[in-house]
Design goal:
single chain; Uracil-DNA Glycosylase, subunit E; 39% helix; two-stranded antiparallel sheet; 6 strands; alpha/beta; 10 helices
Length: 221
């Protein structure tokens, strides 16, 4: 059984070094945006997701948590409506024990997360979604915004990515965006680069990911 505990502990401890305008959703909560017990719920969401992944056979590595996605769900490329929504957006493996954590009445939905899970066919088995900087850096518009993490942020926290690669135990890693590819490169990992699904990149992303999934289909099932 895959031991994700050291990886999750690193998330709880938060980023090393100066990390202004960064939210650690696994430890911290904002009374304006978060329900009571939100940080614990996100840790529980992540743990339940990792159980469903099992031993990683393929890793999709993105950039950072987004406020519509992992900031409130606790899971990369995944929104709370996909975990606990009542509008048909819920993923087939979600529902209880997954719980929402935001105070937003309709819950958050991340377009990129919908694209990624659509490309995966809604199946989490063997495919681990993660980020090079696995916390939420927000922009000048406040906590409900996103920004690309500065190089100093993700280079100071490569130890978490190293733990991820150890847990993945040699599984192929695919970079979703150039930040992820650069972070892997500093660790000596050459990874195929996928177009990020945001900002009109959905069709390119799907086309690039499809043959990679097909190539690993025998070990993903």
């Amino acid at each position: 059984m895959t031991d994700f505990a050291p990886l999750v502990r690193s998330l709880f401890l938060g980023p090393r070094g100066a990390a202004e305008r960064v939210v650690n959703p696994y430890r911290d909560a904002d009374p304006v945006f978060d329900r009571p017990g939100a940080a614990r719920r996100r840790r529980e969401n992540l743990a339940a997701y990792l159980e469903r992944v099992g031993q990683p056979r393929l890793v999709l590595l993105g950039e950072a948590l987004g406020f519509r996605g992992g900031r409130f769900s606790g899971i990369a490329f995944t929104s709370e409506r996909q975990l606990a929504g009542e509008d048909g957006r819920r993923l087939p493996w979600a529902g209880p024990p997954f719980r929402p954590t935001s105070t937003r009445p309709g819950l958050w939905l991340e377009p990129s997360g919908s694209i990624v899970w659509g490309a995966l066919g809604g199946d989490p088995r063997g495919v681990l979604l993660w980020n090079a900087f696995p916390w939420h850096p927000y922009g000048s518009r406040g906590p409900l915004s996103n920004r690309t993490p500065e190089r100093r942020l993700w280079t100071a926290n490569l130890h978490v990515l190293e733990k991820l690669l150890a847990v993945a135990a040699g599984a192929p890693v695919v970079a979703v965006g150039r930040t992820a590819q650069a972070a892997l490169g500093l660790l000596g990992v050459e990874a195929p680069l996928l177009r990020h699904p945001a900002y009109g990149g959905a069709d390119i992303f799907r086309g690039q990911l499809a043959p990679l999934l097909a190539a690993h289909r025998s070990v993903l099932r």
